[in-house]
Specification:
By secondary structure, the protein is an alpha/beta fold. Helices cover 40% and strands 21% of the residues. The chain folds into two domains: 166 residues, D-Maltodextrin-Binding Protein, domain 2, CATH 3.40.190; 102 residues, Periplasmic binding protein-like II (D-Maltodextrin-Binding Protein, domain 2), CATH 3.40.190.10. It starts with 11 loop residues before the first strand and ends in a 17-residue tail after the last helix.
């Protein structure tokens, strides 16, 4: 049964299952600040990193179903982790989707010291180095990792996959020339491109058959009652329809959801993604040529 409703004087807690400073953390804080103003109550963002998002998601799944604790989840946390880890301890059925916040794409980027400027240059770059190119991503249970697999198939090449335990280390190695390229979320790529610190080899949305886009949504534990969810859902509808909030999200590389995408349509999208990625991603994972985490950082992955 649902727990007692979240007391109105108590702050809502939005869990981001990655360290502070990543793209999901930034966009969650934009929305949380706007929701707090709309509801007239505090909304606190808490970073609970670990195991590519598993730790934070598991924490929310086991929280009281009173509407006080919310997960800022993505395809990686809600779909891929349960598919790829039989011991994850949760699945998307352990949550109720409150609203889809928006979508963001991915980019393949390279450091400025490399010779590749476009995707078509990668084979020549590999030949010049005399070894396979090393490509970084934020963990094997991510769309970024499987996008790399698709790029390999389309080019007929084989890369060295390097999963990182934190995006700061990944970017540091890329800029420092210790990594040839990486797949990152567009908000991360845009910031680095503004600083002329990387080159964008490809926007993955332009490549057919590549996992090129991820959604973000807010979720509460299953069995949270609709009366406890409704105020938050209504607030999210309102703030995502506010052009000042939507503009800030777009500036960060996130396309805000339309009102019609916020509820039942989002539930169907999650189910469809679970089916879509179930067979293809699990089969690819069994063949994944992953190295041990390249960074000694203790941070969990940033999306």
């Amino acid at each position: 049964m649902p727990a007692a409703a979240c007391p109105p004087e108590q702050a809502l807690s939005v869990v981001v299952p990655y360290p502070a400073g990543g793209s999901l953390d930034a966009t969650t804080r934009v929305v949380a600040d706007a929701v707090a103003l709309r509801l007239g109550r505090p909304v606190q963002v808490r970073n609970v990193p670990g195991a590519s998002g598993l730790i934070g998601a598991r924490k929310v799944a086991s929280a009281a179903n009173d509407g006080c604790t919310i997960l800022s989840g993505t395809v990686n946390t809600m779909v891929l982790i349960p598919l790829l880890d039989a011991h994850a301890g949760f699945s998307s059925s352990d949550f109720v989707p409150v609203a889809k916040i928006g979508t963001t794409g991915f980019a393949l980027i390279a450091g400025t010291q490399g010779s590749a400027v476009h995707l078509a240059d990668l084979r020549d770059a590999e030949t010049a180095l005399g070894r396979p190119l090393a490509v970084g991503h934020p963990g094997n249970a991510t769309l970024q990792a499987f996008a790399i697999d698709s790029i390999e198939q389309s080019l007929g090449m084989h890369f060295i996959h390097v999963p990182y335990s934190g995006s700061a280390a990944l970017i540091g190695d890329l800029i420092g020339g210790r990594l040839d390229m990486a797949v990152v979320a567009l908000p991360v790529a845009h910031e680095l491109l503004k600083q002329n610190r990387v080159r964008q080899l490809a926007d993955l949305e332009a490549l057919p058959g590549v996992a090129a886009e991820s959604w973000n949504g807010w979720f509460v534990p299953v069995r949270t009652s609709e009366p406890d969810i409704a105020p938050l859902r209504n607030a999210l509808v309102a703030v995502l329809g506010d052009e000042s909030v939507a503009g800030r999200l777009r500036d960060a590389g996130v396309e805000p959801s339309a009102p019609g995408e916020l509820t039942s349509v989002f539930s169907r999208e999650i189910a469809a993604d679970t089916t879509r990625y179930g067979h293809s991603l699990v089969s690819r994972a069994s063949e994944h040529r992953a190295l041990p985490a390249a960074s000694p950082s203790k941070d969990a992955n940033r999306p």
